[in-house]
Amino acid sequence: MSNCSTYTDDQLWQQITQDDQEAFTAVYNRYWKVLYLRAQHMLTDSDLAQDIVQEVFISLWHRRKEVEVLHLKAYLFQAVRFQELKALRNLKSDINFYERLALISKDLLIHEPLAFKELDTVLQRVLASFPEDQRMIFGMSREEGLTYREIAGKMEISVKTVEKKMSQALRALRKGMDSAFPLVLSMMALLENSQN
């Protein structure tokens, strides 16, 4: 296949299914950067983003005879989203868990509203289980963007108490959301299979 860079995604995919490494390289060169930038933006971790993109392409090559890909670009973006969710689940103890969850949730809302609805239902249930003071502190921090010092001033409690309540809230949130990820991942896989 000469000058693969001028071929359409469909033409390249057909060649890839026939074990054409040059076509695979052309697809990699066409999409690796945009996939990497997306994953890096969602996960804020360059190494992890690079690993995810590499894993998606490795999987694509290994599964080239098994999967039916109708829209290559959509397939690649869906595969990266799926890997991001898996990575988020594995990183749930990270200090930026809530921020990462918010980014993934926004992406789900746009691209997979059913998965977002399920994730949001679990999130609301977890938040509703918090004691009232913890729920208020969490809301002031995450929804109003107040600092721990500002929250302490408003509630007339110590900054240490705010830190403790936020730590408890985030721990409960991680634990509660952990139960939702297998279902969301399953939904993502079903959506991926139905789109390809």
Automatic annotation (TrEMBL):
Short name of one Pfam family: Sigma70_r2
UniProt xrefs under Gene3D superfamilies: 1.10.1740.10, Winged helix-like DNA-binding domain superfamily/Winged helix DNA-binding domain
Electron transport in keyword set: no
Residue stretches making up the RNA polymerase sigma-70 region domain: 28-91
Keywords: Sigma factor, Transcription, Transcription regulation
Record domain RNA polymerase sigma factor 70 region 4 type: where: 123-173
InterPro entries for the chain: RNA_pol_sigma-70-like, RNA_pol_sigma-70_dom, RNA_pol_sigma70_bacteroid, RNA_pol_sigma70_r2, RNA_pol_sigma70_r4_t2, RNA_pol_sigma_r2, RNA_pol_sigma_r3/r4-like, WH-like_DNA-bd_sf
Record's keyword annotation contains NAD: no
SUPFAM superfamilies in alphabetical order: Sigma2 domain of RNA polymerase sigma factors, Sigma3 and sigma4 domains of RNA polymerase sigma factors
An individual GO BP term: DNA-templated transcription initiation
GO MF, one annotated term: DNA binding
Similarity comment: Belongs to the sigma-70 factor family. ECF subfamily.
Name listed for the protein in its UniProt record: RNA polymerase sigma-70 factor
Source organism per UniProt: Chitinophaga flava
